Amino acid sequence: MKKVAVIGSLFAIILVFFGIRRYANYAVKKGSSFMNQFENNNNKQQLNNKHESDEILTIYYSNSGATEKAAKYIHRQVSGDLVEMKLTPNYPDDYQQLAEVSKDQIDNNVHPRIDNLPDLSKYRVIFLGFPTWYHRPPMFINTFFETGHFNGQTVIPFTTSMSSGIDESASYLEKMGQNKKIDLQDGFRANNQTTIDKFIKQYQ
Ligand SMILES: Cc1cc2nc3c(=O)[nH]c(=O)nc-3n(C[C@H](O)[C@H](O)[C@H](O)COP(=O)(O)O)c2cc1C
């Protein structure tokens, strides 16, 4: 009888031992696959973000630095590419000369060349920055719309100015963007971070 009890106990111990081992294996496997899934999701999330930010372009011209500051701030928020437009002829730094040259371009319908316009067709969203001159966009903005290759981009104009809002540029921008394959937004005046933050949230 004693012998039977000993054998029974041994058998029970063996059963418990293998049971625990099996459960431990299962738990480790389950745990690692959960971690893999988490890591994969995490990678995918990063790829998605990268993919989306790759499709955003912030392109601008700035003469005295205000629009550049705004463009760089926008770029820091939305990532993607940042391009400062190089123009021919270039504008003078001197205020009086700049005032004359830019007015003359309006009067004579001059469209300055943009020397480094990237292939716009690869972007989904384009932030287009310029200073307001004479209550309207500078004349090279005509060139941007004329020479850019568009296939459905959302174009978001932003301007810096002494006081003019983006609304003063609206009718000019609408005309320039007419019959282009773009989704032209109203845009915004980008003189301070609060306004910029408010607008770019919609497009992130
Ligand atoms: C020729 C010229 C015309 C301007 N016209 C206007 C205007 O119509 N309305 C306005 O609010 N500011 C006007 N400004 C001020 C600029 O829009 C403002 O200083 C802008 O932030 C400059 O941008 P930037 O530093 O990127 O060149 C004008 C400036 C210049 C040089």
**Sequence stretches where pLDDT stays below 50 over 5 or more residues:** 10-51
Q: From the alpha-carbon coordinates, what is the Rg to the nearest angstrom?
A: 30 Å
CATH topology (fold) name of the largest domain: Rossmann fold
Task: Work out the helicity level.
Answer: 40-55%
Mean pLDDT: 82
Using the coordinates above, name the CATH class of the largest domain.
Answer: Alpha Beta
Number of helices: 6
Structural class by secondary-structure content: alpha/beta
| CATH architecture field of the largest domain | 3-Layer(aba) Sandwich
What oligomeric state best describes the polypeptide chains here?
Answer: single chain
Domain tally:
2
Please provide the ordered H/E string of secondary-structure elements.
Answer: HEHEEHEEHEHEEH
User: Termini distance?
Assistant: 79 Å
Bound molecules: flavin mononucleotide
CATH superfamily of the largest domain: Flavodoxin domain
Tertiary shape: globular
Biggest sheet details: 6 strands, parallel
Taken as a percent bin, the fraction of beta residues is 15-25%
Record keyword descriptors for this entry:
six-stranded parallel beta sheet; two-stranded antiparallel sheet; 204 residues; 2 domains; Flavodoxin/NO_synth; globular; alpha/beta; Flavoprotein-like_sf; Flavodoxin-like domain-containing protein; binds flavin mononucleotide; oxidoreductase activity, acting on NAD(P)H; Rossmann fold; FMN binding; 6 helices
